[in-house]
Amino acid sequence: MPHVTEHPDLASAELETALRSGPFHVALRAAITARGLPLQRVQHHLSRHGVKVGVTSLSYWQQGARRPQRPESLRAVRALEEILRLPEESLIRLLAEAPETADGDRPAPRSYRSLVEASDTLDRLRAELDWMPDGGMHTLGHHERVRVGGRRELASRESEHIVRAHRDGVDRFVAVHHGDPGCRPDDMAVHALENCRTGRVRLDRETGVLVAELLFGTRLRSGDTFLFRYGITDGTAGASHEYVHRFGSPGGQYALQVRFDASALPARCHRFSQFSPAAPRTGRQELAVSEPHRSVHVVEPRVRPGTVGIAWEWE
Q: Domain of life, per the record (predicted)?
């Protein structure tokens, strides 16, 4: 059957829309259509870039049946941007918005758009609490414990911080919780557990973001260290697939532990990191759920700006 090319103006308009709003597989298909290239030619161009990808894989990618995620596949996506004459990072960015793969290789992360919206919301809520970017303190250590309940929901989390003030007068911390899609921030609860008490709480129902003041009850001087602990009860959304912590600045040690209910153990778990919401996820490492503790964890000796998280898959 001969290859049929759509009207150039129509194909270009569809491509522009797809690159702007995604998802990845629709944009890839629109780009291939707009350039009038059969998949065999696309494969040939990739091989000239030193990247080997089968025609079947390319077909799956543009159908949304599979999602590029291995390092070689991500190299291919970057090469496709050049081959198809697309803006740099345009397809890579959309990978953060791709839906769950049909073969269940990997649960879909929050979309790039939702992360940007949540970031804008967070800036607004922090401003309402007159919170500086780093609050006048550096984090020396941070240990998070996340509990996933019997309904596979993000049930709760507990955080312990060790901080050092770098200016006089520091007397509080603003905690952030971003619930899973469909969560109800109004039904969440903040618990001051050690060396602090709860102050003002702000939330945004649309993005599922909650911020809460934790008041120290004392004013730190520059150089003083302080340890405090708090918890957040959630359990308001459906099945959870990952927990991610975003760091805006460098810091000390970070440890994340996820514990699962005995009646709801995941099939697989892995850790990952991400430089920014638009960047591909890297540093993937499989994690075995330990017995009898039913938990997995990651430890970062020194955190850098970006995100660190644990994802899991259900049977």
A: Bacteria
Provide the domain limits for residue 258.
Answer: 112-313
| CA dist., res. 116 & res. 261, Å (int) | 31
Q: Are residues 217 and 146 in the same domain?
A: yes
- Give pLDDT tens digits for 237-288: 999 999 999 888 889 999 999 999 999 999 999 999 988 766 778 888 999 9
Residue ranges of the alpha helices (H) in 112-259? Answer: 112-128
Q: Look at residues 135, 138, 142 and name the one whose alpha carbon lies nearest to residue 157.
A: 142
Cα separation values, 134 from 39, 121, 126, 245, Å? 49, 17, 11, 15
Looking at the structure, do residues 155 and 261 belong to the same domain, yes or no?
yes
Cα–Cα distance measured from residue 47 to residue 53, given in angstroms and rounded to the nearest whole number: 8
pTM here is 0.66
Q: Are strands 154-165 and 137-148 parallel, antiparallel or unpaired?
A: antiparallel
Q: Please name the residues in contact with 158: beta carbons below 8 A apart, sequence gap of 6 or more.
A: 144, 145, 193, 229, 230, 231, 232
CB 154 within 8 A of CB 243: yes
302 and 252 together in one domain: yes
